[in-house]
Amino acid sequence: MAYIGRTPTFGKFAAGAAARNLVDGDLKVTGDISSNDTLFKMVMDTAANEFDNILIEDGGTDGSGANAGDDICLEKETSNIVTVGANSQEKSNIMLNSFRISINGSLVKFDMIDGVVDQFEDESATADANLANEVYDATGDFYQPDDLSDISTSVGTWTATNTNAGDPNGIGDGGGTATNWRSENVSGASVTLDLGSGNTVVANKINLLQSNDAGQTTRFLFTASNNNSSYATIHDTSQSAEVTSGNFTHTMTTTDTAYRYFRLTAYKNSNYRFGLYQMTLFGAGAKKDMIIQSDSFTALTVPTESFITILHEPIDTVTLNSDFTAEVSRDGGTNFTAVTLTKEVDLASGDIVSGLVDLTSQPSGTSMQYRLKTFNARDQKIHAVALEWK
Q1: Residues 234, 239, 240, 241: what is their CA dihedral angle, to the nearest 10 degrees?
Q2: Among 43, 94, 139, 388, which is disulfide-ready with 307 (CB 3.0 to 4.6 Å)?
Q3: What was the pLDDT predicted at 24?
Protein backbone atom coordinates (compact mmCIF):
# COMPACT_ATOMS: atom_id res chain seq x y z
CA MET A 1 0.00 0.00 0.00
CA ALA A 2 1.11 3.62 -0.50
CA TYR A 3 2.41 5.94 2.20
CA ILE A 4 2.84 9.73 1.90
CA GLY A 5 5.44 11.24 4.16
CA ARG A 6 8.88 12.64 4.59
CA THR A 7 11.06 14.27 1.95
CA PRO A 8 13.50 11.81 0.34
CA THR A 9 17.14 11.99 1.26
CA PHE A 10 18.46 11.94 -2.30
CA GLY A 11 19.07 14.70 -4.83
CA LYS A 12 19.05 14.60 -8.60
CA PHE A 13 20.31 11.42 -10.19
CA ALA A 14 24.05 11.70 -10.71
CA ALA A 15 26.12 10.21 -13.48
CA GLY A 16 26.86 6.56 -12.90
CA ALA A 17 23.53 5.82 -11.23
CA ALA A 18 21.88 2.47 -11.85
CA ALA A 19 20.59 1.93 -15.36
CA ARG A 20 16.99 2.86 -16.07
CA ASN A 21 14.61 1.99 -18.85
CA LEU A 22 13.71 5.13 -20.79
CA VAL A 23 10.51 5.64 -22.75
CA ASP A 24 10.78 8.02 -25.69
CA GLY A 25 7.21 9.02 -26.54
CA ASP A 26 3.86 8.36 -24.91
CA LEU A 27 3.42 5.57 -22.37
CA LYS A 28 -0.07 4.13 -22.00
CA VAL A 29 -0.65 1.66 -19.19
CA THR A 30 -3.91 -0.27 -19.04
CA GLY A 31 -3.01 -2.27 -15.95
CA ASP A 32 -1.08 -1.67 -12.73
CA ILE A 33 2.46 -0.37 -12.50
CA SER A 34 3.94 -2.24 -9.58
CA SER A 35 7.31 -2.88 -7.98
CA ASN A 36 8.86 -5.69 -6.07
CA ASP A 37 10.71 -5.27 -2.78
CA THR A 38 13.94 -4.27 -4.46
CA LEU A 39 12.53 -1.64 -6.81
CA PHE A 40 11.83 1.41 -4.75
CA LYS A 41 11.81 4.46 -7.02
CA MET A 42 9.95 5.58 -10.11
CA VAL A 43 11.36 8.81 -11.53
CA MET A 44 9.74 11.17 -14.03
CA ASP A 45 12.57 13.51 -14.96
CA THR A 46 11.94 16.27 -17.52
CA ALA A 47 14.37 18.75 -18.96
CA ALA A 48 17.00 19.99 -16.59
CA ASN A 49 15.95 22.79 -14.26
CA GLU A 50 12.26 22.61 -15.13
CA PHE A 51 10.00 21.04 -12.53
CA ASP A 52 12.75 18.57 -11.55
CA ASN A 53 12.01 15.78 -10.18
CA ILE A 54 8.70 14.03 -9.53
CA LEU A 55 9.47 10.93 -7.46
CA ILE A 56 7.32 8.06 -6.35
CA GLU A 57 9.13 6.00 -3.70
CA ASP A 58 8.16 2.74 -2.05
CA GLY A 59 8.64 2.19 1.66
CA GLY A 60 7.66 -1.47 1.84
CA THR A 61 4.39 -3.28 1.64
CA ASP A 62 3.21 -2.12 5.07
CA GLY A 63 5.07 1.12 5.52
CA SER A 64 7.60 -0.38 7.91
CA GLY A 65 10.60 -0.41 5.62
CA ALA A 66 13.72 1.74 5.96
CA ASN A 67 12.19 4.41 3.77
CA ALA A 68 8.70 4.14 5.24
CA GLY A 69 6.55 7.18 4.60
CA ASP A 70 8.36 8.15 1.42
CA ASP A 71 5.97 6.65 -1.10
CA ILE A 72 4.87 9.84 -2.85
CA CYS A 73 7.03 12.92 -2.79
CA LEU A 74 7.20 16.09 -4.87
CA GLU A 75 10.73 17.39 -4.67
CA LYS A 76 11.32 21.03 -5.53
CA GLU A 77 14.67 21.42 -7.31
CA THR A 78 13.95 24.77 -8.95
CA SER A 79 12.36 28.00 -7.76
CA ASN A 80 9.40 27.99 -10.15
CA ILE A 81 7.57 24.89 -9.02
CA VAL A 82 5.86 26.28 -5.90
CA THR A 83 4.83 29.80 -4.82
CA VAL A 84 4.85 30.11 -1.07
CA GLY A 85 2.09 32.58 -0.04
CA ALA A 86 0.83 35.53 -2.07
CA ASN A 87 2.80 38.63 -2.97
CA SER A 88 1.50 42.15 -2.34
CA GLN A 89 -0.08 42.42 -5.79
CA GLU A 90 -1.95 39.14 -5.35
CA LYS A 91 -3.06 40.10 -1.84
CA SER A 92 -4.30 43.45 -3.10
CA ASN A 93 -6.26 41.75 -5.90
CA ILE A 94 -7.86 39.43 -3.35
CA MET A 95 -8.81 42.40 -1.17
CA LEU A 96 -10.07 44.33 -4.21
CA ASN A 97 -12.46 41.47 -4.92
CA SER A 98 -13.50 41.57 -1.26
CA PHE A 99 -14.20 45.29 -1.63
CA ARG A 100 -16.33 44.64 -4.71
CA ILE A 101 -18.30 41.90 -2.96
CA SER A 102 -18.81 44.13 0.07
CA ILE A 103 -19.83 47.18 -1.98
CA ASN A 104 -22.18 45.24 -4.29
CA GLY A 105 -23.77 43.53 -1.30
CA SER A 106 -23.92 46.71 0.83
CA LEU A 107 -22.15 44.77 3.58
CA VAL A 108 -20.97 46.27 6.84
CA LYS A 109 -17.59 45.31 8.28
CA PHE A 110 -17.07 41.55 7.98
CA ASP A 111 -14.45 39.20 9.34
CA MET A 112 -12.10 37.02 7.34
CA ILE A 113 -9.56 34.43 8.42
CA ASP A 114 -6.96 36.58 10.23
CA GLY A 115 -8.40 39.80 8.86
CA VAL A 116 -11.31 42.18 8.35
CA VAL A 117 -12.81 44.12 5.43
CA ASP A 118 -14.75 47.37 5.85
CA GLN A 119 -16.09 49.43 2.94
CA PHE A 120 -17.77 51.88 5.34
CA GLU A 121 -21.35 50.89 4.66
CA ASP A 122 -21.77 52.43 8.10
CA GLU A 123 -19.53 53.66 10.91
CA SER A 124 -19.91 50.62 13.16
CA ALA A 125 -16.22 49.59 12.92
CA THR A 126 -14.55 52.97 13.42
CA ALA A 127 -13.81 54.29 16.90
CA ASP A 128 -15.84 57.49 17.31
CA ALA A 129 -13.67 58.79 20.16
CA ASN A 130 -10.57 58.55 17.96
CA LEU A 131 -11.94 60.20 14.82
CA ALA A 132 -10.90 63.76 14.08
CA ASN A 133 -11.88 66.36 11.46
CA GLU A 134 -13.71 63.78 9.36
CA VAL A 135 -16.95 63.92 7.40
CA TYR A 136 -18.73 60.62 6.79
CA ASP A 137 -20.77 60.44 3.59
CA ALA A 138 -23.59 57.94 4.20
CA THR A 139 -24.61 58.01 0.52
CA GLY A 140 -21.20 57.39 -1.00
CA ASP A 141 -19.89 55.38 1.98
CA PHE A 142 -16.58 57.19 2.41
CA TYR A 143 -14.65 59.45 4.78
CA GLN A 144 -13.32 62.85 3.73
CA PRO A 145 -11.52 65.62 5.62
CA ASP A 146 -13.73 68.37 7.02
CA ASP A 147 -13.06 71.93 5.97
CA LEU A 148 -13.19 75.40 7.47
CA SER A 149 -16.17 77.15 5.88
CA ASP A 150 -18.86 79.77 6.55
CA ILE A 151 -16.62 81.84 8.82
CA SER A 152 -18.78 83.97 11.05
CA THR A 153 -17.73 87.40 12.21
CA SER A 154 -16.97 85.97 15.66
CA VAL A 155 -13.90 84.20 14.26
CA GLY A 156 -10.61 86.03 14.01
CA THR A 157 -9.29 89.46 14.89
CA TRP A 158 -10.21 92.79 13.27
CA THR A 159 -7.98 95.78 12.70
CA ALA A 160 -8.75 99.11 11.03
CA THR A 161 -6.77 101.84 9.30
CA ASN A 162 -8.62 104.49 11.30
CA THR A 163 -9.94 103.73 14.76
CA ASN A 164 -11.45 107.07 15.75
CA ALA A 165 -14.96 105.91 15.04
CA GLY A 166 -15.72 102.69 16.82
CA ASP A 167 -13.93 99.47 17.63
CA PRO A 168 -13.44 97.28 14.52
CA ASN A 169 -13.86 94.18 16.70
CA GLY A 170 -17.43 95.31 17.18
CA ILE A 171 -17.98 93.87 13.71
CA GLY A 172 -17.37 90.42 15.11
CA ASP A 173 -19.23 90.47 18.40
CA GLY A 174 -22.55 89.27 17.01
CA GLY A 175 -24.26 92.43 18.24
CA GLY A 176 -25.99 93.27 14.97
CA THR A 177 -26.42 97.01 14.54
CA ALA A 178 -25.67 97.69 18.20
CA THR A 179 -21.94 97.95 17.52
CA ASN A 180 -20.12 98.94 14.39
CA TRP A 181 -17.05 100.42 12.82
CA ARG A 182 -17.31 103.62 10.81
CA SER A 183 -15.01 105.38 8.42
CA GLU A 184 -15.45 108.96 9.56
CA ASN A 185 -15.03 111.25 6.57
CA VAL A 186 -12.17 109.17 5.22
CA SER A 187 -12.24 107.66 1.76
CA GLY A 188 -10.14 104.54 1.36
CA ALA A 189 -10.36 103.48 5.00
CA SER A 190 -10.22 99.72 5.50
CA VAL A 191 -10.85 96.94 7.98
CA THR A 192 -8.90 93.64 7.97
CA LEU A 193 -9.97 90.25 9.31
CA ASP A 194 -7.28 87.79 10.43
CA LEU A 195 -8.68 84.25 10.72
CA GLY A 196 -5.70 83.15 12.78
CA SER A 197 -2.78 80.80 12.28
CA GLY A 198 -3.70 77.63 10.41
CA ASN A 199 -7.11 78.94 9.27
CA THR A 200 -7.76 79.72 5.62
CA VAL A 201 -10.85 79.86 3.45
CA VAL A 202 -11.69 80.24 -0.22
CA ALA A 203 -14.24 83.04 0.00
CA ASN A 204 -16.97 82.53 -2.58
CA LYS A 205 -19.22 85.20 -1.07
CA ILE A 206 -18.99 87.92 1.58
CA ASN A 207 -22.07 89.23 3.33
CA LEU A 208 -22.03 92.79 4.72
CA LEU A 209 -24.51 94.39 7.08
CA GLN A 210 -23.67 98.01 6.36
CA SER A 211 -24.85 101.58 6.61
CA ASN A 212 -24.18 104.43 4.26
CA ASP A 213 -24.88 108.14 4.56
CA ALA A 214 -27.28 109.02 1.76
CA GLY A 215 -25.77 106.42 -0.56
CA GLN A 216 -22.50 108.25 -0.76
CA THR A 217 -20.24 105.16 -0.79
CA THR A 218 -18.87 104.82 -4.29
CA ARG A 219 -16.72 101.67 -4.27
CA PHE A 220 -15.95 98.47 -2.31
CA LEU A 221 -12.61 96.72 -2.79
CA PHE A 222 -12.15 93.23 -1.34
CA THR A 223 -8.58 91.94 -1.12
CA ALA A 224 -6.99 88.91 0.54
CA SER A 225 -3.56 87.71 1.64
CA ASN A 226 -1.70 84.89 3.35
CA ASN A 227 1.14 87.03 4.72
CA ASN A 228 -0.65 90.32 5.61
CA SER A 229 1.70 92.09 3.26
CA SER A 230 0.92 91.24 -0.33
CA TYR A 231 -2.83 91.47 -1.04
CA ALA A 232 -4.67 90.14 -4.10
CA THR A 233 -7.96 91.54 -5.35
CA ILE A 234 -10.83 89.07 -5.07
CA HIS A 235 -13.68 91.51 -5.82
CA ASP A 236 -13.91 95.16 -6.85
CA THR A 237 -17.26 96.88 -7.33
CA SER A 238 -18.72 100.33 -7.77
CA GLN A 239 -22.19 99.15 -8.68
CA SER A 240 -24.80 101.17 -6.86
CA ALA A 241 -26.77 98.07 -5.89
CA GLU A 242 -23.77 96.71 -4.00
CA VAL A 243 -22.57 99.81 -2.20
CA THR A 244 -25.89 101.08 -0.83
CA SER A 245 -27.04 100.60 2.76
CA GLY A 246 -28.46 97.37 4.10
CA ASN A 247 -27.72 93.69 4.05
CA PHE A 248 -26.01 92.64 0.84
CA THR A 249 -24.10 89.51 -0.19
CA HIS A 250 -21.21 90.17 -2.54
CA THR A 251 -20.15 87.37 -4.88
CA MET A 252 -16.40 87.21 -5.24
CA THR A 253 -14.91 87.55 -8.71
CA THR A 254 -11.83 85.43 -7.89
CA THR A 255 -12.40 82.26 -5.82
CA ASP A 256 -9.49 79.92 -6.51
CA THR A 257 -7.21 80.48 -3.50
CA ALA A 258 -7.61 80.00 0.25
CA TYR A 259 -6.57 83.02 2.30
CA ARG A 260 -6.03 83.85 5.96
CA TYR A 261 -6.46 87.67 5.79
CA PHE A 262 -9.41 89.50 4.24
CA ARG A 263 -9.59 93.28 3.82
CA LEU A 264 -12.51 95.53 2.91
CA THR A 265 -11.69 99.03 1.68
CA ALA A 266 -14.54 101.50 1.30
CA TYR A 267 -14.35 104.56 -0.96
CA LYS A 268 -16.88 107.35 -0.60
CA ASN A 269 -17.59 110.94 -1.24
CA SER A 270 -16.08 113.40 1.21
CA ASN A 271 -17.80 114.41 4.43
CA TYR A 272 -19.79 111.20 4.60
CA ARG A 273 -19.53 108.05 6.69
CA PHE A 274 -19.60 104.33 5.92
CA GLY A 275 -20.55 101.96 8.74
CA LEU A 276 -19.97 98.19 8.95
CA TYR A 277 -21.89 96.10 11.50
CA GLN A 278 -21.21 92.51 10.52
CA MET A 279 -19.28 90.58 7.88
CA THR A 280 -19.50 86.85 7.13
CA LEU A 281 -17.39 84.80 4.72
CA PHE A 282 -18.93 81.93 2.79
CA GLY A 283 -16.96 79.32 0.90
CA ALA A 284 -14.94 76.16 0.93
CA GLY A 285 -12.14 76.32 3.42
CA ALA A 286 -8.86 74.49 3.40
CA LYS A 287 -9.17 70.87 4.41
CA LYS A 288 -8.34 69.95 7.98
CA ASP A 289 -6.02 67.06 8.81
CA MET A 290 -8.20 63.97 9.32
CA ILE A 291 -7.77 60.89 11.53
CA ILE A 292 -9.69 57.64 10.93
CA GLN A 293 -9.05 54.94 13.55
CA SER A 294 -10.72 51.54 13.63
CA ASP A 295 -12.23 49.59 16.47
CA SER A 296 -10.20 46.66 17.81
CA PHE A 297 -10.29 43.31 16.01
CA THR A 298 -9.15 40.21 17.92
CA ALA A 299 -6.44 37.97 16.45
CA LEU A 300 -6.36 34.31 17.52
CA THR A 301 -2.60 34.40 18.09
CA VAL A 302 -0.08 37.22 18.53
CA PRO A 303 0.57 38.63 15.02
CA THR A 304 4.10 39.44 13.93
CA GLU A 305 3.15 41.32 10.77
CA SER A 306 0.16 42.93 9.11
CA PHE A 307 -0.86 43.81 5.56
CA ILE A 308 -3.24 46.68 4.86
CA THR A 309 -5.09 47.44 1.61
CA ILE A 310 -6.94 50.74 1.12
CA LEU A 311 -9.27 52.03 -1.59
CA HIS A 312 -8.09 55.65 -1.63
CA GLU A 313 -9.30 58.46 -3.87
CA PRO A 314 -7.05 61.53 -4.02
CA ILE A 315 -8.94 64.74 -4.88
CA ASP A 316 -5.92 66.98 -4.57
CA THR A 317 -2.42 65.83 -5.46
CA VAL A 318 -1.52 63.45 -2.62
CA THR A 319 1.91 62.04 -1.81
CA LEU A 320 1.69 58.67 -0.09
CA ASN A 321 3.43 58.41 3.29
CA SER A 322 3.50 62.21 3.50
CA ASP A 323 0.01 63.59 2.78
CA PHE A 324 -1.63 60.24 3.59
CA THR A 325 -0.33 57.68 6.08
CA ALA A 326 -1.38 54.36 7.59
CA GLU A 327 -0.40 52.70 10.87
CA VAL A 328 -1.20 49.36 12.53
CA SER A 329 -1.37 48.37 16.19
CA ARG A 330 -1.55 44.95 17.84
CA ASP A 331 -2.10 46.24 21.40
CA GLY A 332 -5.42 48.01 21.01
CA GLY A 333 -4.07 51.33 19.78
CA THR A 334 -1.55 52.02 22.55
CA ASN A 335 1.33 51.65 20.10
CA PHE A 336 1.24 52.07 16.33
CA THR A 337 3.82 51.21 13.66
CA ALA A 338 3.87 53.15 10.40
CA VAL A 339 3.18 51.30 7.15
CA THR A 340 5.08 52.17 3.98
CA LEU A 341 2.28 52.51 1.44
CA THR A 342 2.64 51.71 -2.26
CA LYS A 343 0.12 52.36 -5.01
CA GLU A 344 -0.79 49.08 -6.67
CA VAL A 345 -3.26 50.22 -9.35
CA ASP A 346 -5.34 53.17 -10.58
CA LEU A 347 -9.09 52.57 -10.67
CA ALA A 348 -11.97 54.71 -11.86
CA SER A 349 -13.04 55.12 -8.22
CA GLY A 350 -9.56 55.76 -6.85
CA ASP A 351 -6.30 53.93 -6.15
CA ILE A 352 -5.54 50.66 -4.44
CA VAL A 353 -2.68 51.31 -2.01
CA SER A 354 -1.16 48.71 0.30
CA GLY A 355 1.72 47.96 2.59
CA LEU A 356 3.25 45.30 4.84
CA VAL A 357 4.41 46.18 8.34
CA ASP A 358 6.46 44.32 10.97
CA LEU A 359 4.79 44.41 14.40
CA THR A 360 7.48 42.70 16.47
CA SER A 361 8.72 45.99 17.95
CA GLN A 362 5.35 46.48 19.67
CA PRO A 363 4.35 44.93 23.00
CA SER A 364 2.74 41.52 22.58
CA GLY A 365 -0.98 41.66 21.93
CA THR A 366 -3.88 40.41 19.84
CA SER A 367 -6.04 43.55 19.66
CA MET A 368 -5.60 44.78 16.07
CA GLN A 369 -6.33 48.32 14.93
CA TYR A 370 -5.47 50.53 11.98
CA ARG A 371 -5.14 54.31 11.90
CA LEU A 372 -5.23 56.53 8.80
CA LYS A 373 -4.16 60.18 8.75
CA THR A 374 -4.22 63.00 6.20
CA PHE A 375 -1.84 65.95 6.26
CA ASN A 376 -1.06 69.28 4.59
CA ALA A 377 -4.71 70.21 3.91
CA ARG A 378 -4.94 67.69 1.06
CA ASP A 379 -8.47 66.68 0.03
CA GLN A 380 -8.99 62.92 -0.37
CA LYS A 381 -11.56 60.18 0.18
CA ILE A 382 -11.20 56.83 1.96
CA HIS A 383 -13.63 54.28 0.54
CA ALA A 384 -12.57 50.94 2.04
CA VAL A 385 -9.92 49.25 4.20
CA ALA A 386 -8.86 45.63 4.53
CA LEU A 387 -6.53 44.58 7.36
CA GLU A 388 -4.81 41.19 7.48
CA TRP A 389 -2.39 39.77 10.02
CA LYS A 390 -0.35 36.68 10.77
Answers
A1: -70
A2: 388
A3: 67
Q: What is the pLDDT of residues 260-291, one digit of tens each?
A: 999 988 888 776 767 777 777 776 666 888 99
SS3 content of the chain, % helix, strand, coil (to 5): 10, 40, 50
Residue 306: domain span? 89-146+288-389
Does 279 lie in the same domain as 181?
Answer: yes
| 240 and 294 together in one domain | no
CA distances in angstroms from 123 to 143, 203, 352, 360, listed in the order given: 10, 32, 21, 30
Question: pTM score, two decimals?
Answer: 0.51
Domain membership flag for residue 250: yes
| Domain CATH code at residue 327 | 2.60.120.260
Burial of residue 249, with CB atoms counted within 10 A of its CB: 0-12 exposed, 13-18 middle, 19 or more buried: exposed
What does the alpha-carbon distance between residue 308 and residue 388 come to, in Å, rounded to a whole number?
6
Q: For residues 155 and 195, what is the distance between their CA atoms, to the nearest angstrom?
A: 6
Residue 151 forms part of a structural domain: no
On whether both 347 and 302 belong to a single domain, the answer is yes
Secondary structure letter of residue 177 according to DSSP: G
Query: Residue 101: which pLDDT band, with cuts at 50, 70 and 90?
Result: low
- pLDDT of 303-359, one tens digit each? 999 999 999 999 999 999 999 999 999 999 999 999 999 998 888 778 989 999 999
- How many Å apart are CA 362 and CA 330, to the nearest integer? 7
Tally the domains of the chain.
3
Question: Domain for residue 152, yes or no?
Answer: no
CA 190, CA 220: separation in Å to the nearest integer?
A: 10
How far is Cα 125 from Cα 294, in angstroms, rounded to an integer? 6
